[in-house]
Please model this.
Amino acid sequence: MKLSCWMDDGIVWMMLLLSAATMAGCQQVVSIDLNKANPHIVIEGNVTDQQGPYVVKISKTGNYFEPTLSFPAVTGAAVVVTDDGGQADTLRETEAGTYESTTLRGIAGRTYALTVVAEGETYQASSSMPAKVFIDTLYSVYRPSGRGGSGYDIYITFRDPPEPGNYYRLNATSSRPIPSDSIDGERYRLYTDKLTNGNEMQERIRAGDNVLVGDTITVDLLAIDQASYDYFNTLRDILQSDQAATSLAPANPNSNISNGSLGYFAAYTVDTRKIVIR
Model:
């Protein structure tokens, strides 16, 4: 599973009321101007330790007062990804706004840098790919009652490395159509070892009646860096916030891309396990 799968829908960006002020530093929560928002560039890029090609998508936001599900692609950009091991790859545009690598390999422990030149502006970001962390066990337990009624809980265990400062995202999907980012559709599964450094970690996903006997459950454990964690953590907070018209306007999620761009650039490892519900 690719981390960018949820980003393919323009609906998310409309929910976030996308409009941004210029970023002063590497990371910043960007305020929203609800008056007349000019389009802002959105860059979404991923490099993993899985087989490429890796994809960078570039588009633009719309005006909040003229909402639309059409978010124009940015074409003709120059997109280059390098790493601190000497790799350099100029991505090719395979369709409007979609740029794919040709020779790049994702390797744990390396730091990757993204440079995008689009419409006369330059945008840069970097992300360090952590060491790979493996799922130790994956199993399901049926609960006849409890929160959300009867159904299945999915348990995942993995060993956190002894070095502090590790961050994770869990993705779980079923063979039946359910929300792609979380098996119960409630939130992103994000974890940090701030309080559990070096321990065996056990995480539970309340699948409930989203899965049935015979379904195949696929779980991806993503080892991500802090910038990626901060981005998805703030995104989750925004998506869970009160969307009422009287609410304060939310900010956009923290971005690690320079020059006022929205979006993120992430390098991460992936370990995948599957089980069949019996």
In short: The chain has two domains: 5-130+227-269, 135-223+272-276. Helices lie at 11-15, 226-240. The CA atoms of residues 153 and 167 lie 23 Å apart.
